[in-house]
Every structure is written in C-alpha cells, then in structure tokens.
C-alpha cells in the first residue's frame, strides 16, 4: 500500500512539474524594446619568398586583405516584432611570380552587401507583415604576363531581391530565455540553493530578467558579463529565492547564463497567407584567348510565390519540443538568359534562352527536438513537398522528401561534437543558374560525424 501511495505521489509531482514547464514555456513572451549589435572585422597579410635555382632566382610574393561590418537589431513588443540585418564586406588579393624569363601578375577584388528586414504588426492575435531580402556582389580578377599573350580579365556581378507581404493570425515567441530559466531553477534546486520551488509567475519573471541581461547593449565585455550576472542575481535575491549565497550558487548561475548552448526555441501557432515576388541574376563578362576574345552572359530569374498555411511550435516540456506545419504553394518562375560572343570587339554570335515554370504543391514538415541538458540537442526532421508543374514542353509531378537526425554537443568555445544521418529523395526538381534544367531523379543517403576544434 505504501508503495502504491508513493508511486501515486511521484506521478502527481512529475505531472505537476511537467505541466508547469509546459505552461511557462508556452506562455512566455520575449519582449525587448530595442536591441542592436555591431560586428567589425579587419584582416590583412602578405608573404614573400625567394628561391635560388640553377637557372636563376625564382621570386614569389602575395598580399591580401578583407573588411566587413555588420549590424542587426531586434524589437519585440506586444504590437511590433521587427528584425533587421545588414552587412558590407570587401576583400582583395594580389600575387606576383617572377623568374629569369617570365613575370606573372594576378589581382582580384570582391565586394558584397546584404540587407534583410522582417516587420510584423499585431492587433490582438492578427498581424500584417512585410519584409525584404536584398543582396549584391561584384568581383573581378586580372592576370597579366610578360610573355606575348593577352591579359585575361573576368568580371561578375550578382543581385537578388525578394519582397514579402502577408497577413495572418497568431504569433511565434522566442522562449530560449525561459528555457534557460527552467534549467537554472533545476540546477539550483539540485545544488540545494533554492529556498522554495518557483511559482509559474516567479519563473516567468526569472525568464524576463535573463532577457533583460542578454539584450542590454554594453560594449565592454567584462562589464556586460557583470551586468548579466547582477541582473539575474538581483531578481533572485530580492524575491528571497536563494537559501545560501556561496560559490556553488554562483557557479550554477554562471554556468546557465553563459554556457547553456542549445538552439533557439519557439512557441506558438501562426496561420498565414504570404506573397513573395523575387528577382535574381548575375552578369558575367571576360576576355578569352583564341578565336573568341570576349563573352558576356546575363541570366536572370523572376518569380512569384503564394503560400497559405500554418506553423505550430509546441514545447512539451523542458526537454522535448514538437514542431510541425503545412502550406499550399503556388509558384511561378520565369528564367531568361542571353549569351554574346565577340571577336576583335565585334559581336559575331548571340543566343537567347527563356523558360517558364508553373507549380502547385503542398509542403509539410515535422521536427522533434530533444534537449537532454544545456549543451546538447538532438533533432529528428521530416520534410516533404510535392505537386504538379507545367514546364512548357512537359507537364509532370515533382516531389522531394528528406528524413534526417542530428546531434550537436557543445564541449567548449573551441570544441564541438556533431553527428548527422539522413536520407533524401528528389524527383523532377528544376535548378537555375547558367541554365534552367531538371536534375536527375536521385536518392541520397548520408552519415557525418566529427569533432570541430579551433586552436
């Protein structure tokens, strides 16, 4: 009889605990009025070597450099969810090789820019959204030689712009801070440093204090670390939730706030209707030796995608999460390309290509995520899409499906363990770059495992 009573008590306690976890995770609201982060990277280097050979000296030299600056911002209030990201980067390289008979030179340059914006405005449970993704790049290289041969020049520029407009109902919330709040409660409880188990409201406020600490911009890294620790500690102390203030308490606090490395988690359901028009392409021209001394190529793609569907992200408890969704997709793709060949500056050949594709399909996805601890996540992913397409001369069904699993374990900032396994199937899938063509039907099986170490 005692065993039965004990079992019932443990069962009720377990259900209560998981029910509380499920509730605070699902109901947590990530709110930050304004956060921004700036990243800057500058690199450069050069090398020189000289070799004495029987026929004379051989000299080689090279230099390179790169620069990038990026910024991202987040605003999450009851009425607005806005994320932006921008990045500009450039690089150059040059090299020279010289011997007694020949001198060869090479110079290369690359520049790129990227910008993305997603803005959602809420009125109760309903929202409107708009956004843009834009990117462009340009690169060139030139090779010259002291030998009697023409210089080789190549230039290429690329661009891609996609707009997004949509309406919907519901909201997906970032619950990562609340997840870490639950991990913190668990670790402090196991260390015997909590005066009592936190209520749902106290856990919610703990999650908000973690959000405040993580999203307050402080340039000095040491001061930022201090601020995060003091913000969360202040909440726990003011509420009288800590039974003992010692190194065990501090080490658990520090461990969760700075070494809980799991993927971001979402909670909630959204239903949507979205329209995404896009334009992308590139332009390439270069000088070649032989009969054709110059060529140009400028393919571009215009497309329009309408999707109607829903996404649901469901935190079962601290360690388990189920995500799934479905969408009906209507897609139109128009591909065009022109190739021109010149000889002595005179156009002697021009070829034009174009093709349109119309698609109607259904996309489904399911993911189960398992978080056994603060540094490990295991995911099972299933995704499939299929439908009917009109590709001009052919009308056919298309489809793709993939099943994969992966494990990721954070050992340290310098070491990470990863394992991936899966299978994928593709049938009548078109790809477009220099040409628009259907890929061969294929089945792919893969297994990857490794440890990444940065020294």
Structural features, described:
Helices cover 19% and strands 61% of the residues. With 455 residues, it is of the alpha+beta class. It has three domains: 2-28 and 176-259, no CATH class; 37-171, no CATH class; 273-455, no CATH class. The strands form two sheets. It has a 16-stranded antiparallel sheet that branches. The longest helix has 26 residues, at 2-27. The chain starts with a helix and ends with a strand.
Brief descriptors of the model:
two-stranded antiparallel sheet, 5 helices, 455 residues, alpha+beta, globular, 16-stranded antiparallel sheet, disordered N terminus
The percent of residues in helical segments reads 10-25%
The number of distinct structural domains comes to: 3
Biggest beta sheet summary: 16 strands, antiparallel
Q: Separation of termini?
A: 60 Å
Enumerate the spans where pLDDT stays under 50 for 5 or more consecutive residues.
1-17
The DSSP helix count reads 5
- The tally of beta strands, per DSSP, is 18
Order of helices and strands: HEEEEEEEHHHHEEEEEEEEEEE
Average of per-residue pLDDT values = 86
What coarse outline follows from CA principal-axis ratios?
Answer: globular
- Which structural class do you get from the secondary structure elements? alpha+beta
Strand residue content: over 45%
Computed Rg:
29 Å
């Amino acid at each position: 009889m005692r065993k039965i009573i004990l079992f019932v008590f443990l069962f009720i306690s377990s259900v209560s605990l998981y029910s509380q976890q499920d509730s605070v995770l699902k109901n947590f609201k990530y709110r930050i009025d304004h956060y921004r982060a700036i990243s800057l990277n500058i690199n450069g280097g050069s090398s020189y070597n000289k070799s004495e050979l029987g026929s004379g000296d051989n000299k080689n030299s090279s230099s390179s450099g790169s620069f990038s600056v990026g910024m991202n911002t987040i605003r999450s209030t009851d009425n607005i969810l806005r994320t932006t990201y921008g990045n500009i980067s450039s690089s150059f390289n040059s090299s020279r090789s010289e011997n007694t008979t020949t001198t060869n030179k090479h110079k290369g340059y690359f520049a790129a820019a990227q910008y993305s914006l997603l803005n959602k405005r809420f009125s109760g449970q309903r929202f409107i959204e708009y956004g843009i993704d834009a990117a462009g790049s340009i690169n060139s290289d030139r090779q010259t030689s002291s030998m009697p041969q023409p210089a080789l020049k190549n230039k290429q520029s690329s661009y891609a712009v996609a707009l997004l407009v949509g309406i919907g109902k519901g909201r997906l919330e970032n619950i990562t801070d609340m997840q870490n709040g639950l991990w913190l409660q668990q670790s402090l409880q196991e260390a015997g440093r909590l005066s009592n188990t936190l209520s749902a409201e106290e856990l919610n406020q703990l999650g908000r204090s973690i959000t405040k600490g993580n999203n307050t911009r402080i340039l000095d890294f040491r001061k930022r670390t201090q601020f995060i620790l003091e913000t969360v500690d202040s909440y726990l102390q003011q509420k009288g939730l800590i039974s003992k203030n010692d190194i065990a308490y501090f080490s658990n606090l520090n461990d969760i706030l700075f070494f809980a490395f799991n993927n971001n988690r979402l909670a909630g359901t959204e239903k949507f209707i979205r329209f995404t028009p896009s334009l992308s392409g590139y332009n390439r021209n270069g000088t070649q030796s032989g009969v054709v001394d110059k060529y140009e190529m400028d393919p571009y793609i215009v497309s329009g995608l309408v999707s109607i569907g829903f996404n649901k992200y469901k935190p079962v408890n601290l360690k388990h999460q189920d995500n799934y969704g479905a969408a009906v997709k209507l897609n139109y793709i128009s591909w065009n390309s022109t190739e021109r060949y010149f000889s002595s500056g005179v156009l002697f050949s021009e070829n034009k290509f174009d093709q349109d594709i119309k698609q109607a399909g259904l996309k489904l996805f399911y993911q189960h995520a398992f978080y056994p601890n603060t540094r490990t996540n295991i995911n099972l992913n299933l995704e499939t899409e299929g439908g009917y397409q009109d590709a001009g001369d052919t009308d056919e069904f298309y489809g793709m499906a993939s099943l994969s699993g992966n494990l990721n374990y954070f050992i340290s900032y310098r070491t990470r363990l990863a394992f991936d396994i899966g299978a994928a199937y593709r049938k009548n899938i078109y790809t477009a770059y220099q040409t628009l063509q259907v890929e061969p039907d294929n089945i792919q099986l893969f297994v990857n495992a490794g440890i990444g170490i940065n020294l």
